[in-house]
Amino acid sequence: MENEYALKLLKDHLQMVDGLEYSERQEALVRGFLAGNVFDWGAKEVVKLMEDGLGFTEAGDKLQKRPWLHDDLDAWVKRQQQAPYKCAIIFLDNSGCDVVLGIIPFARELLRRGTRVVLCANSKPALNDVTAEELMMVMRQVVLVCPVMNKHLETGTLCVRESGQASPCLDLSRLPLTLVDELVKWQCDLVVVEGMGRAIHTNLLTSFTCDSLKLAVIKNRWLGQRQVFFITYMEFYGNYVN
């Protein structure tokens, strides 16, 4: 149901993003990425909001105002003005608005810049986290709306892969060897980790030998009781950043 709801909004959302100038578009893509990450059935406070009819625009309005808890948005926009990445892997989080209105537009921007994109989702279900099998079904609907995604899916510069996980967390030591071999072959130089479980709980201190993005909306009981917004975390580690 959440996927169907989000897919109905995708065309208009992409048109809105495309109408923005460069810097505004980069910020809108990141904000959309984070707004989508609000939709998490593993957070009790968010579940209540979702049951009450939380929409994608409302979720964006509830994000913490900048500067965020960790805010590297400006550094990311600056890096995007340089040469495009060769290959990016994105470790996805939730179904619905998260993947359709958050991840898809973000991945589309990378693809249009000449970056190969690997969408990596859970092998088995956990909460409302998207699985690789489910993601393939979603992509069949996405390509009907977006010619860019259709082109890259057909040529293989966009692909869906399994992470080997069945948890809201991410254990990088358990990635399938076939996936690791592909990333080496494609010279992966950007790792994107999304979500509170993957980016904060299990990989906050993880360092990579290439550029990395960790994005998450922190949603828990303490925040739900004391604040009207969700704390936002965006960490970018680039090869030009000290």
TrEMBL record:
Homodimer. Interacts with PKM. It comes from the Eukaryota. Transmembrane segments: none annotated. The gene is PANK4_1. The lineage of its organism: Eukaryota, Metazoa, Ecdysozoa, Arthropoda, Crustacea. InterPro entries: ARMT-1-like_metal-bd_sf (IPR036075), ARMT1-like_metal-bd (IPR002791), Type_II_PanK (IPR004567). It catalyses: (R)-4'-phospho-S-sulfopantetheine + H2O = (R)-S-sulfopantetheine + phosphate. Its cofactor is Ni(2+). One of its GO terms (biological process) is coenzyme A biosynthetic process. Residues 2-225 form the Damage-control phosphatase ARMT1-like metal-binding domain. This is 4'-phosphopantetheine phosphatase. GO terms for cellular component: cytosol; nucleus. One of its GO terms (molecular function) is pantothenate kinase activity. PANTHER family: 4'-PHOSPHOPANTETHEINE PHOSPHATASE, PANTOTHENATE KINASE. It holds the Pfam family ARMT1-like_dom. Coiled coil: none annotated. Phosphatase which shows a preference for 4'-phosphopantetheine and its oxidatively damaged forms (sulfonate or S-sulfonate), providing strong indirect evidence that the phosphatase activity pre-empts damage in the coenzyme A (CoA) pathway. Hydrolyzing excess 4'-phosphopantetheine could constitute a directed overflow mechanism to prevent its oxidation to the S-sulfonate, sulfonate, or other forms. Hydrolyzing 4'-phosphopantetheine sulfonate or S-sulfonate would forestall their conversion to inactive forms of CoA and acyl carrier protein. Keywords: ATP-binding, Coenzyme A biosynthesis, Kinase, Nickel, Nitration, Nucleotide-binding, Transferase.
